[in-house]
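[job 0412] stage=fold_complex status=start
inputs:
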Amino acid sequence: MKVLMKGNEAIAEAAIRAGCDAYFGYPITPQTEVLEYMSRRMLELGRVFVQAESELGAINMVYGAACTGVRVMTTTSSPGFSLMQEGISYIAMSFVPCVIANIMRGGPGLGNIQPAQGDYFQMTKGGGHGDYNPLVLAPSTVQETVDLTIEAFDLADKYCQPVMVIADGMIGQIMEPVEFPEMQVPQRPERPWALTGAKGRKKNIITSLFLTPSILERENLRLQKIIAEIRANEVRYSEYLMDGAEIIVVAYGTAGRIVQTAVKQARADGIPVGLFRPISMFPFPYDRLGQVAAMARQILVVELSAGQMIEDVRLATRCSLPISFYGKLGGLVPLPEEILEEIKKLVDK
Amino acid sequence: MTENVELVFSRPESLSDVVTHYCPGCIHGIVHRAIAEVMDELDIRERTIGIAPVGCSVLAYNYFECDFAEAAHGRAPAMATGMKRTNPNLIVFTYQGDGDLASIGTNELIHAAARGENITTIFINNAVYGMTGGQMAPTTLPGMVTTSSPFGRDVKTHGYPVRVCELVSQLDGSAYIVRRTGYKPAEVRRMQKAIKTAFQVQMAGLGYSLVEVVSNCPTNWGMTPKESLKFVEERMIPYYPLGDYRVKDEVKTLK
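[job 0412] stage=fold_complex status=done
writing structure:
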């Protein structure tokens, strides 16, 4: 059965369906509805909800809960995500699972509360200190947000790493009909590393401190091995009207969705253009984009930023073809007609 | 002869049999032992999680035979909140120094207390950042020389020391907030009794409990251990008076 739901509420309900045991969050527009929804539903279900004193508090509550092996989540928006970087770095090096959603808004600084994609570097290149790379999933519809949020919990458990859902204010606020899977009751599977009390076993320690360089190197290599597995196994993307596409538009999230409308229109006008939409922003679909780009003549990258993902597009294509960029800043969202104009500029190039 | 020998002193089961990294004369070891004895006495080692801070006791997890996590600087009370809320049957305590708790971690401390989290904090106040080599802490006494207040802490430029028990006792979520010390055996016994009460407060679900231990740092104070204990008695305790700052009525009925 489909229900009409706001993206933010859908994230919350999806987490609940995925068996999320505990939610810790802090109000910030445009993600606050997740917190509000959780404050009601989690308590109704007898699960844990705490409104933290800050995003620092929230991410460290997540860290603490994750150390005990439960399914745990927090959500925030850009400035709050900056505050969480310290905790995420610790969580990554502690090899504990959690899910974090960032409903991006305009920046830098306080910016505004409109949709933006300016946190791409921070989300996909580590973000905090040290060598780590959380898995990052970027939905472009409310239904995809539900599906990817649920998947994020499974992936976090699989790799014992933080997994991110990267959306923007548009997806957070838009209402669409969505379908949810059956409710999963929170499970507490046997996790030999979890802090559950040293009963009948030796004590467990969860730390990211390794003072001996060779041991810190060993732990880093352990983390890098997981990241390599993620790179190998978790690449996700979507292709739209890519058959015979001489022009490829690369865009994700809300930008991807707007581009889809423009591409459809352009095809109707006889322009051989397709949309390549990365879904896993880390690991970025370098190989597949490289393959399809080899058949194309031009690439257009569209982002709600000054151009961040474009660097990964350059890497994927090894700069073997011309790459144009169309971006919007300040929380502005382009119309499909604007994208169509940009596509038309490339036709005779 | 052996049948006449009675074992009267041994290592608590909750204390690990390892070499300590703490400096000679430091009170950390005494407090560790007190916590371990309390864990033994209350029989809670197998369901206790400790959280170590950043500071001299960053490696505290090496010294206890219970599960342990290592928090980011100052964040232990938030981490403890996440653990305890998802596992109400576990006993969760944070072990924090003055830089960790009273400077970078005040936000997490105050709100954990305000929420009345059923967690316990053991707060070691030695008025100095020990691990980084003796810089001025939020609890450094006025006039005290440190490596970052070489002319002595001037309250006009560096501000005033933070009295944690006085602060946290104002919050309604706080159930048991007391200040003790460990510079002489009688005080160690009082301190250990307070730690036991603090854990019992948590076990009874009465709210936030914190035991501050006015402590020493012979290394960074530039003193012999004996001189440092004298400094605790004569200089630290007048500024940080020992006593019970908040004891909820229900706590008084605990046995």
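[job 0412] summary: Residues 238-347 of chain A form a domain with the Rossmann fold fold (CATH 3.40.50.920).
[job 0412] exit 0
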